[in-house]
Specification:
Blueprint lengths: L3 E10 L3 E4 H4 L7 H8 L3 E4 L6 H15 L9 E5 L10 H9 L5 E5 L5 H14 L5 E9 L9 H4 L4 E11 L6 E9 L7 E3 L12 E3 L1 H23 L8 E4 L4 H11 L10 H4 L6 H11 L8 E8 L3 E8 L6
Parallel strand pairs: 4-5, 4-6, 11-12
Antiparallel strand pairs: 1-7, 2-3, 6-7, 8-13, 9-10, 12-13
Length: 326
Amino acid sequence: MASRILMTGVGAYLPENIVTNDDLTKWVDTSDEWIKQRTGIEQRHMVAEGELTSDLAYHAAMQALDNAKLSSADIDIIVVATTTPDDTFPSTATKVQKKLGASSAFAFDVQAVCAGFVYALTVAESLLIAQKGSRALVIGAESFTKLLDWEDRTTCVLFGDGAGAVILEKTEAPHEYGILASALHSDGTLRDILYVDGGPSATGDVGHVRMEGQDVFRHAVEKLSSVMDEVLVQADIPAGDVDWLVPHQANIRIINGMQRKLGLPADRVVRTVHKHANTSAASIPLALSEAVHDGRIKAGDLLALEAIGGGMAWGASLVRYGKPQS
């Protein structure tokens, strides 16, 4: 009997410091109206001095464990998707492992920028199917404001910090819950439309985000539509059966475009971009956690997850959330 990988718990954490669009006008030439019209963003959270990506990840992980009614000792695999690790090495995941006291788990990072959570989810699912463990903790965590050029109004207004986490559990019981389909893609020829101009082997420093916004928007709409079609065909599920679209929260126009593509009503799409801005690998699990904890997403709901980011890298997953009643 084939293994089924369930998503049984979610958690999230946002830094306390909230920066509004009006706050940004104090140090960059922009306006609340300009930002909202182009992106839908109204505010973002920003890490405090001394607050690390691993701290955000730890708090999100603890909430996810509590939501799944598990302890850190129950976890076999920890995967952290991040573009903003605490250190060049070791991995942020091993630092989260230490903070959790999850001594029996193995831990590593995945780097696919804004698509990182979908990549990490698929990697963890594959490891569980390959019998490398029974439960995985998958975290998207970013201190993305550390990469911003605060004199570049085209990028610095777009991003925020935060973390989200999910618990995956393997089961052999026959049912239609869990991860039903996934697809991953990348195209390195598109590197120059969204990248950071620094790195250990290139410049020896962290660098700043650089982006060709119109090119990114065009590729995002095209590639997210295509990969969503791919997973729907893979699972043999019509788009109309999707209960919730939980998209990467980068731009409200891209989110609305995917809503129209799937033919979903507006109230079946989880939108947090106005509150969180683009939190890169953290954006999907942050949105997912909010919708689970406020009661919108319930066990048995079919979720469509999709994201695209620098690389370019993109992917999608279909998940029937929760655990079936025994």
